[in-house]
Amino acid sequence: MSSRARVYLRLGRVSNLPTVWTNVLCGMALAGSGVRAREVALVGLAVSLMYVGGMFLNDAFDREIDARERPERPIPSGLVSAREVFAVGYALLGAGVLFVGGHAYAEGRGAAPALASALLAGAIVLYDAWHKGNPLSPALMGLCRVLVYVTAALAAGGQLGIAVIGGGLALLFYLIGLTAIAKQENLLAVRSLWALGFMAVPFLYTMGTPLTGVVGLVAYGALAGCVLHAIRLLRGTRRDRIPRAVVTLIAGISLLDAVLIARSGASGAAALAMLGFPLTLAMQRVVRGT
């Protein structure tokens, strides 16, 4: 593999892509239009391009801060120019929107999927440009993932019903909690309780999932174990406890997707989504997820 390819893989945080794929799978399953492999692959590719593009832009916008705090990142270390990273990032975002729009046009599904993907692209750029020092950045990051659900649901010809909305809110609270918990130094402090409260919302929303069958029970238990493990890491004393907890919770997004899918009754798709968790962790050993 060339050195430039390795730099691009680092910039794109490609190890987290399985969580994007399970987001797409979940959005389609919750929309009630059925899960078709070809459609999952096509929309998954489009959203993957947008995710990687967003990660490129994240580094480009953060280049001055990274020069002080993370000088080993590709731009401040001189491995690639900010201009190139901006160009590639915006190109990937645009390609993703075009993929979704082209698919929707070919399937006769109107402009809604393209509009949703354009909103997703806009939210990604807004987050990348305005997440440092922004108290609303956790919610903005969560909104990006929710819009993946919306884009996938509409691209599959489904409806934005209560399942998509409820699942999207559960995902939003999970991501707000993920970001907030990762910033805490002492989870026993009173100021940490609100972060733990956000993480509790997805469990409350899906508390009936274990009753849907074996897959639902396993997915719910795995998600609980993932979050508890991350909390134990954050309460520890290891210097790398925060990044380890963050990458664990990122991988846990696939488990939440699996729980939501199982709740909708699609046990096969839920079992497939659960595989995103170990796959993400395995890929993070090769390419850092943060």
Main CATH class: Mainly Alpha
Which sheet architecture does the biggest sheet show? Answer: none
CA radius of gyration = 18 Å
Q: Give average pLDDT, whole number.
A: 90
Number of strands: 0
CATH topology: Tetracycline Repressor, domain 2
The helix/strand class is mainly alpha
Helix % is over 70%
For the terminal residues, how far apart are their CA atoms? 21 Å
Proper CATH architecture: Orthogonal Bundle
The helix count comes to: 13
Amount of beta strand: under 5%
SSE order, as H and E?
Answer: HHHHHHHHHHHHH
The number of distinct structural domains comes to 1
The CATH superfamily bears the name UbiA prenyltransferase
What are the low-pLDDT stretches, counting only 5+ consecutive residues below 50? Answer: none
**Shape type:** globular
Protein name: Prenyltransferase
GO cellular component, one term: membrane
Main location: membrane
GO molecular function, one term: transferase activity, transferring alkyl or aryl (other than methyl) groups
Question: What do you see in this structure?
Answer:
The chain is mostly helical. Helix 10 packs antiparallel against helix 11. The chain is built from 13 helices and no strands. The model has no long low-confidence stretch (mean pLDDT 90). The longest helix has 25 residues, at 37-61. The chain is globular. Helices cover 75% and strands 0% of the residues. The chain has one domain (3-284): Tetracycline Repressor, domain 2 (Orthogonal Bundle), CATH 1.10.357.140.
